[in-house]
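your task:
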Amino acid sequence: MTESGNPSQPVNVNEYDASHIQVLEGLEAVRRRPGMYLGSTGERGLHQMVYQVVTYAIDEHLAGHADAIDVTITADGGIRVADNGRGLPVQAHDPTGKSAVERQLTELSFVPKPRTGYWVSGGINGLGLCGVNALSSRLTVEVHRDGHRWTQEYEKGIPISALTRHEESSGHGTAIVFLPDADIFETTLWSFATLSQRLQELTFLNGGLAISLTDERPERPVRHHHLDGLRAYVAHLNPYPPPSLVHSPAIGFTSENEEQTISVQVAMQWNTWSPGEFLSFANSTRTHEGGAHEVGFRTALTSVVNDYARRRQQISADDQDLTAEDIQEGLTAVVSVKLAHPVFEGSTRTRLGNPDADTYVQEVVRQHLADWLDHHPNEAAAIIRHIVNASTGRGKW
């Protein structure tokens, strides 16, 4: 084979050998290729830094050890994320003598041992705390645990001080303060509205968790706390007057399998005002491209509604089945799954590929939605009438 630019000139294979291969290790790889870890070095990637730190705090909530997260946009343009969880471990357990705090902040491959930390972890498990550290011009971690306050400081992912024990403390939790590196990001200007919207979404997806957001640029505090979880989310997405709601409140149910490897939350409500909206999440990450959990929900929904409508003789034996399109007309629904081992696929890794998610979501929806319809006959009749009307409007009846 010859070079395409000069057919008569043979290729010198010795010009390309092992010395031309550059291997980037650890945090150096993150700093050299930040887009591979964040997806962007623009505004979207900048805000992803906050979500990565918040995800760690949410993991503490999922493990049953935290119920509050405070996020602050500091006056100098940094971010502070503090939680009331157990606090990052400060002990050193490996031959290097590094504390678990330092390993968590400097090693891409460092993760807690199975079943000792979290049975499920929020997000896609991409960047993590160490990646945020690598892409920050400076970062300070403060831990309250084991009866003391501990701190350590970093610059561009490199520790500039040892983990230091300070005064006694009866508190518990972790606070991370970081300043994004202006040499990495196209912008370091935070959007209060963008952060507030995502943090509110996370409280909907993790019922009982309170997240506050404070802006010191000027001060503009906001606190999100939704005990009703996804039903509150659907109410937020359906801000229509009562006459436009086919039923109220929203339908909601939650289930977890015996092995505690997958849990499902569903909330749904029909209205006559909008064409409907469907949102799905896996480990609190929006799955824009759908996936197995969406397939399971839509399959079970179509089956349950048709079965109920026929049993109640709202459609006859001679009528065609109500289609998925008919049933989803005016339906606002949110489906959230949490899995111990999520498999993300698609061009942006936002499609869930776990077959067990399809199976389990179908099982949960068939059981709980059928039960709700049977126990709410008036609301159920109104829902079926709405769906039949939608079908009639398409000229099918």
Q: What stands out?
A: The chain has eleven helices and 16 strands. Residues 229-393 form a domain with the Ribosomal Protein S5; domain 2 fold (CATH 3.30.230.10). The two ends are 67 Å apart (CA to CA).
